[in-house]
User: Which sequence fits this backbone?
């Protein structure tokens, strides 16, 4: 999926369970327990794999199923720390976790920049995007000290300005309403016109989007947790990634971009059951 050679798909078999240790979890609808940063999740096995991976949703850990490191976990383990394991040395563990907090957002930016280059025609904007893409890739290849010195917020700000321009360029001629950062929690949007909408950073938790045509809507960073996407047309959406779909609800009628797949927990595609015809009733004459 990446032309620049960066591995932007998580591969847990080449990681050391970093995402199960480094972040903090707060007991909520997403996580069944509280877990402070740097403490291993009790479900993490000795082989660095999740002991309840196939039951995460049922056991109260849907947040784990939608987390995406964009390949930062294996990069950190195999590249930045050359195969070292955080369990072998507490000092190494602290540096690994601190470095992961930098490397993961940089990998996410690589994913967005790669998509932006793909959808932007040749010209000055594409050249700028390619230059920042290459710069971000070089940052991810730095040493732990190099990475810890990166001002992630400043770099993200530069990248987001370019991504916003790329989104506007891709939506030119079919731009819809501007709902950037809008709080739309639980809102019924079935009658809303959202084709080509700017939904960057919009909070759509639990929103009802059934049957909505989103066209070239920009979904950069949109929070789709629990959003109802049954029958929704997402086929041409911009900057939609798999973890957003994994956090939402959909069914076999939901139209997806070619590069994404239908989450296994979505409503299955079931054959249509013929509606039985009513049985004719014999009319009887009432007695008078």
Assistant:
């Amino acid at each position: 999926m990446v032309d620049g050679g960066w591995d932007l798909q998580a591969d847990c078999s080449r990681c050391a369970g970093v995402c199960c240790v480094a972040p903090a979890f707060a007991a909520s609808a997403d996580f069944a327990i509280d877990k402070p940063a740097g403490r291993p999740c009790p479900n993490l096995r000795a082989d660095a794999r999740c002991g309840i991976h196939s039951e995460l949703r049922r056991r109260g850990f849907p947040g784990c199923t939608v987390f995406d490191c964009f390949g930062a976990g294996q990069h950190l383990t195999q590249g930045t720390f050359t195969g070292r394991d955080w369990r072998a040395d507490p000092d190494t563990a602290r540096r690994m976790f601190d470095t992961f907090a930098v490397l993961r957002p940089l990998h996410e930016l690589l994913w967005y920049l790669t998509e932006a280059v793909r959808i932007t025609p040749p010209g000055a904007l594409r050249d700028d995007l390619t230059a920042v893409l290459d710069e971000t890739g070089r940052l991810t290849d730095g040493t732990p000290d190099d990475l810890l010195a990166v001002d992630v917020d400043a770099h993200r700000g530069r990248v987001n300005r370019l991504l916003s321009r790329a989104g506007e360029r891709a939506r030119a001629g079919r731009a819809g309403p501007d709902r950037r950062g809008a709080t739309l929690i639980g809102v019924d949007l079935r009658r809303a016109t959202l084709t080509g909408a700017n939904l960057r950073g919009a909070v759509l938790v639990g929103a009802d989007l059934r049957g909505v045509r989103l066209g070239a809507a920009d979904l950069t960073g949109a929070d789709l947790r629990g959003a109802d996407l049954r029958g929704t047309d997402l086929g041409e959406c911009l900057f939609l990634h798999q973890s957003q779909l994994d956090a939402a609800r959909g069914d076999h009628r939901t139209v997806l971009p070619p590069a994404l797949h239908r989450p296994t927990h979505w409503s299955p595609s079931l054959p249509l059951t013929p509606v039985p015809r009513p049985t004719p009733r014999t009319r009887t004459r009432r007695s008078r």
About this structure: The helical segments are 62-65, 72-80, 90-119, 124-140, 144-148, 152-170, 242-247. The two ends are 80 Å apart (CA to CA). Confidence is low (pLDDT under 50) at residues 270-288.
